[in-house]
Amino acid sequence: MKEIVVIIGGGIAGLEAASQLLKLGYSPIIIEKEDHLGGKVANWHKLFPDMTPAKDIVDELIASSKDSNIFLNTEISFINRLQDSYNIKLSNGISIMTKYILCTTGFRLFEAEKKEEYGYGIYNQVITNGDLEHWFNTGKDERIENSSMQAIGFVHCVGSRDEKARNSQCSKVCCITAIKQAIELKEKFPDAQIYCFYMDLRLFGKKFEDFYIKAQKDYGIHFIRGRVSEVSENIEGKVIVKAEDTLAGKPIKVTLDLLVLMSGMVCNPDTHKMAGMMALQVDSDGFLKSHDNVFHITSSTKKGIFYAGACTGPKTVPETLAEARSAVLDIHSQIISGQ
Description:
By secondary structure, the chain is an alpha/beta fold. It has seven helices and 20 strands.
């Protein structure tokens, strides 16, 4: 009999894990609360730094995991720990018994309206990175006027590295995402001046620095180091941004047709709900706490419970996929050793 492995979350981590489990001869079950697979990446337009269409990645992952048992529009009602296994009750009334659970519950974007000083939900021309990706994909957002974009701004670190937002951690991908989105907007509005307001740029990945240099040299995007101190709106409905250029040592004021807030990654509330059911540890940053041993970063302290992807912290797409493969190897090792 094939061993059943339950994957909670049908984003890219869950799909990649399912694909690898199928290759090893196991029977993965994917439980996804939304009506589609692919998670947040399915809502993205292109991926940094090579501008690969996100849809291509998601479609490939779905195709490679299609032989899994997949439950969409389904949530976890409760999980009971038995002697050597777990009883998982789903919202559709089905119960599943398994010894192995892989949590790939992902993240959510910080709620930008909590940073009232930036005007999201107050001023019409202030949007988030998530809103912008939706527009890239659909072309539908009344706040973005195709014919009148002459100046656009980005605010980095919204809800990240911010004690007032109760999140002192870096969201890891916001800087490079802002650069990607700025390039995409410049391609759509070649005459627009685009400004990125940042604390400091954290570009750690392969070719990320090249991407940043390209944004400046080839696209003329302006990078201004300094926190935005005030956002307001003029009588014409344009956004007025005040900041301090800390490199030039002087205040700056710009009038924008659109302001994009780079909301950071925070832990998905459903992850906390699930953690409570299984008494899993939550780290100081609000994400799930993986095993302290560096050799077991995809393992929890609970037998049979594993993690992959952004449920334990901000990750890039390559990191997420690599962690999913690592988690599958950890599960496989436990199964063949009879643990």
